Amino acid sequence: MITKIGELMLYVNDLDQSATFWTEKIGFTQLAEHNKGGMRWINIAPTSTTETQFVLHDKKQIAAMHPEVPLATPALLFYTKDIQKLHEALFNKGIPVGDIVEMGGSLTFNFPDPDGNYFAVKNS
């Protein structure tokens, strides 16, 4: 039986640019950086105590080593307690945020990462 989601793999074009985006612009914490066997990857999460982490991997390296692995970014929905504040903070950091809209009784907006993948945020 699966008991939790541990890591979500995000395959990115530029590890350093992506890590900087998630930590400096979005406010995630970098938990670890690994260099093993010619591979480099970076673990990040919203906080240091969050159970589920993102693992940033170099997309070209994964494609070369494991061509069977789908490299598409999953559709992810983040939660926040203050959607207006987060929306304004991301906008002020130069992130092209979508408008806040009501969907199914909740407020939501989206934003892209440096690779052009869109992520959604919902008021919790």
UniProtKB/TrEMBL annotation:
- The residues covered by the VOC domain are 4-124
Q: Name one GO molecular function term.
A: dioxygenase activity
Q: Which SUPFAM superfamilies match?
A: Glyoxalase/Bleomycin resistance protein/Dihydroxybiphenyl dioxygenase
Name one matching Pfam family.
Glyoxalase
Alphabetized UniProt keyword annotations: Dioxygenase, Oxidoreductase
Q: What PANTHER family is this protein classified in? A: GLYOXALASE/BLEOMYCIN RESISTANCE PROTEIN/DIOXYGENASE, GLYOXALASE_BLEOMYCIN RESISTANCE PROTEIN_DIOXYGENASE
Q: What is this protein called?
A: Glyoxalase/bleomycin resistance/extradiol dioxygenase family protein
